[in-house]
Amino acid sequence: MRAAALVLFLILAGAVAGISTAQAQTVTYNSVQLSWTASGDDSLTGTAARYDLRYSTSAITAANFAGATPWATTPTPTAAGTHQSVTVTGLQPNTTYWFAIKSGDEVPNWSGVSNIISRTTLTAPDTIRPAQLANVAVTGSTETTVGLGWTAVGDDSLTGTAASYDVRYSTSPITASNWGSATQATGEPAPAAAGTNQTFTVTGLTRQSTYYFAVKALDEAANPSALSNVPSATTPDQTRPAAVTDLAVGFIWLGNVPITRLTTLVADRPRGRHRL
Question: Per mean pLDDT, which range of 11-25, 128-142, 166-180 is the poorest?
Answer without folding.
Answer: 11-25
